[in-house]
Specification:
With about 325 residues, the protein is of the alpha+beta class. It folds into two domains: about 55 residues, 2-Layer Sandwich (Uridine Diphospho-n-acetylenolpyruvylglucosamine Reductase, domain 2); about 230 residues, Enolase-like, domain 1. Helices cover about 30% and strands about 20% of the residues. A five-stranded antiparallel β-sheet has the order 4-5-8-6-7. Strands 9-10-11-12 form a four-stranded antiparallel β-sheet, sandwiched between helices. It is globular. The structure holds flavin-adenine dinucleotide and iron/sulfur cluster (SF4). Iron/sulfur cluster binds next to loops.
């Protein structure tokens, strides 16, 4: 299918109305800018009867960023985040990540919430209905096996590719959720449950978010950490408009010649954004070659790129490590 099917568009203007719309239409899908969801609908990947457009909810559109704190609503546009003076001055990793997403027109439409909840991607999934039918579909939709890993025993390895999640993770962001059962807050990394190597995650590339039925991402927030330096980099096939082959966010603190704190997060490699575990073992000393060797080892262990894109998995993992090294070096040098 390449023509849009019929659907009803609901446009709440308050959070309470959005939650009520979600409660009355449990099968509805939330709509941010539609730059990913509408493409999937056109491809016949999904056909929701109702879309709940969140972009008219004024409370969800705000951006507050200063030297103390960051708070951004889920309906804030990517272009506005990238251009916000407070974000640019105090949270450069976020401004850089937002500015690197898709192309300029997508950034005018795309939202924070849509980016954080972006569907996972795979070369066997992001295709027309006709193409997927010719391959008997796959686990992520109605098929019986995973074409990437036929012996995966029910696990889908589709890749999370949103650029904002790693940037916000290295800032220590939390996420506010609202839903029929009330509001809750949690560390952003807990939103993601896609399969990962070490933590016995309950999800995979098909079930990749910890949202409860009817829950909506309302906003993200973070406290500024004095002295934290941060930056984002990614490689992609077409630099002007493309999902990441690998994306890396780094935040670190330096105390004299010593690496005092290091946070590194990746996208485009696993069924979830990966906040690298074990970076504290690199801290407390000089940033020397043994420290970089340890960083490489952590990346090799936790970044698990599969053949879900046209770029081979081993190349994406290698590039994730190279980008991380470069950013750490650059930020440490100041
Ligand atoms: C050519 C092209 C290139 C792209 N390149 C990139 C790239 O480099 N990096 C990148 O990150 N993305 C990329 N994208 C994907 C997309 O444009 C962005 O991720 C964008 O930020 C998605 O936001 P949106 O508001 O348009 O999401 P939508 O398409 O509106 O929604 C995406 C998903 O999020 C859900 N959702 C939306 N808001 C909420 C909410 N508040 N709470 C819970 N769920 C919600 C929707 O139901 C849907 O499942 C690209 C897309 C295209 C077409
Ligand atoms: S990783 Fe496997 S199950 Fe998941 S979308 Fe790709 S082919 Fe389908």
């Amino acid at each position: 299918m390449e023509a849009l099917p019929e659907f009803e568009l609901l446009r709440p203007i308050t959070i309470a109305e959005a939650v009520a719309a979600r409660r009355s239409h449990p099968a509805a899908r939330l709509l941010g800018g539609g730059t990913d969801l509408v493409v999937n609908i056109r491809r016949g990947i999904e056909a929701p009867g109702q879309l709940i457009d969140l972009t008219a909810v004024a409370e969800l559109g705000t951006i507050k960023a200063n030297a103390e704190m960051l708070e951004i609503g889920a309906a804030a546009r990517l272009a506005a985040i990238a251009a916000d003076d407070g974000v640019l001055a105090h949270y450069p990793v976020l401004a850089e990540a937002a500015a690197s997403i898709a192309g300029p027109t997508h950034r005018e439409m795309g939202t924070l919430g849509g980016n954080l909840c972006l569907d996972t991607r795979c070369i066997y999934y992001n295709q027309s209905h006709w193409w997927r039918s010719a391959n008997d579909h796959c686990l992520k939709t109605t098929g019986a096996i995973c074409h990437v890993a036929p012996k995966s025993r029910g696990v889908c390895f589709a890749t999370f590719s949103g650029d904002l999640a790693p940037a916000l993770m290295v800032l220590g962001a939390e996420i506010d959720l609202v839903g029929p059962e009330g509001a809750r807050r949690m560390p952003l990394e807990q939103l993601y449950i896609g399969h990962a190597r070490h933590d016995g995650s309950s999800g995979d590339g098909k079930r990749y978010l910890a949202l409860l039925p009817g829950e909506i991402v309302a906003r993200v927030r973070a406290q500024a950490v004095p002295g934290l330096r941060s930056a984002y980099d990614k490689i992609r096939i077409r630099r002007s408009i493309e999902y990441p082959v690998a994306g890396v966010a780094v935040a670190l603190r330096r105390a004299g010649g010593v690496l005092a704190e290091l946070r590194v997060a990746f996208t485009g490699t696993n069924p979830r954004p990966v906040l690298l575990a074990g970076t504290e073992t690199l801290c407390g000393g000089a940033l020397d070659e043994p420290a970089f060797a340890r960083l490489d080892a952590l990346v090799r262990d936790q970044v698990m790129a599969m053949k879900t894109t046209f770029t081979p998995g081993h190349y994406r993992r290698r590039m994730a490590g190279v980008l991380a090294r470069r950013l750490v070096m650059k930020l440490f040098a100041g």
